[in-house]
């Protein structure tokens, strides 16, 4: 594998519905290169494209995240809020037909609040709409993203895209192709890859099996190696700080829901369950309701980070407030 030519990128998401992530980002700022608060939506109001979510912006918190780090004089975490594409119907085409309007809106908002760029989520949604399978619409979507990047780059701001894995979980359709990844890597500053949510109520199991994560690292490495400059460093493998809890009665699944690290600790304390780490990342079992299992981001996180490192890639954590304070030391 090629040696990494620059420091590893570590991006961490923060959500308004999990306030602990805001404090985690401040405490762990010296381990993070990028912090992404989930604040914004691209919507339409009476046929006019609008950017909503600005009410969540917290300038004081941003200043705290950017505080200097001891022994790291040149380190300052970049703040790139996430904006999610939520347009529907004709408004989707309107956005594609007005790329300069959308790009200008995002550039203006970034300048107003002093953001360092954006994490844009929309490609998987466009795939679901059939956009990425239609040659002309796909080119329009790429054109929109290129316009956004062009509007941000002169001021040193970055555009990162949140994308699905190239190798989907069994039974699921790929939402991103190798060609997509190669073309996107040519002009964006990063791809935040959602290598988690492997399991579901229909197929219980680990949240991010290490072999699957490595498969995706291999696939993205191949796409990056075909892009100009072979920019593997732009690929940020997803790292989950949460897991899934499955509860059975006999062979009947009673419950399947996300589980935070605090829930894993509660299961251990309340039920005297056994805990293991290993490649699936903190599995807990209990006999109180047949069987309950939760996978969080602890034990297996170092192996996933090692896989990213071995491929010359960075990492993107979903999301900071869902794990334990000790997880900061893994990054």
Automatic annotation (TrEMBL):
GO biological process: carbohydrate metabolic process
SMART domains cross-referenced by the UniProt entry: Glyco_18
Entry-linked Pfam families: Glyco_hydro_18
Any one GO molecular-function label of the UniProt entry: oligosaccharide binding
GO cellular component: endomembrane system
InterPro entries tied to this protein: Chitinase_II/V-like_cat, Chitinase_insertion_sf, GH, Glyco_hydro18_cat
Composition skew (Gly residues), residue ranges: 272-281
Bias (Low complexity): 282-294
Residue ranges of the region described as Disordered: 272-301
SUPFAM superfamilies according to UniProt: (Trans)glycosidases (SSF51445)
Domain GH18, residue spans: 8-331
Recorded family membership: Belongs to the glycosyl hydrolase 18 family.
Name listed for the protein in its UniProt record: Chitinase domain-containing protein 1
Organismal lineage: Eukaryota, Viridiplantae, Chlorophyta, core chlorophytes, Trebouxiophyceae
């Amino acid at each position: 594998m090629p040696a990494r030519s620059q420091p590893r990128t570590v991006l961490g998401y923060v959500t308004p519905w999990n306030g602990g992530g805001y404090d985690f980002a401040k405490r762990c700022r010296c381990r993070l290169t990028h912090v992404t608060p989930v604040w914004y939506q691209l919507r339409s109001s009476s046929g006019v494209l609008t950017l909503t979510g600005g009410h969540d912006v917290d300038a004081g918190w941003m200043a705290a995240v950017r505080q200097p780090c001891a022994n790291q004089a040149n380190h300052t975490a970049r703040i790139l809020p996430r904006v999610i594409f939520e347009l529907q119907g004709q408004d989707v085409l309107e956005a594609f037909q007005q790329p300069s309007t959308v790009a200008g809106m995002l550039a203006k908002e970034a300048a107003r609040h002093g953001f360092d760029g954006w994490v844009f989520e929309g490609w998987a949604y466009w795939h679901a709409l059939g956009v990425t399978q239609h040659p002309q619409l796909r080119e329009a979507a790429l054109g929109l993203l290129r316009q956004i990047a062009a509007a941000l780059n002169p001021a040193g701001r970055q555009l990162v895209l949140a994308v699905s894995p190239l190798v989907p979980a069994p039974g699921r359709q790929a939402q991103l192709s190798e060609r997509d990844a190669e073309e996107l890597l040519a002009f964006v500053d990063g791809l935040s890859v959602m290598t988690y949510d492997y399991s579901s109520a229909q197929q219980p199991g680990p949240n991010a099996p290490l072999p699957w994560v490595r498969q995706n690292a291999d696939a993205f490495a191949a796409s990056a190696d075909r892009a100009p400059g072979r920019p593997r460093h732009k690929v940020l493998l997803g790292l989950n700080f949460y897991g899934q809890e499955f509860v059975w009665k006999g062979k009947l699944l009673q419950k399947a829901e996300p589980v935070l690290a605090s829930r894993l600790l509660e299961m251990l304390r309340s039920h005297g369950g056994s805990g293991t780490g290993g490649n699936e990342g903190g599995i807990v079992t209990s006999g109180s309701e047949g069987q309950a299992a939760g996978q969080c981001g602890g034990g297996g996180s170092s192996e996933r980070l090692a896989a990213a490192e071995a491929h010359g890639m960075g990492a993107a954590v979903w999301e900071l407030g869902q794990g334990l304070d000790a997880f900061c030391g893994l990054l």
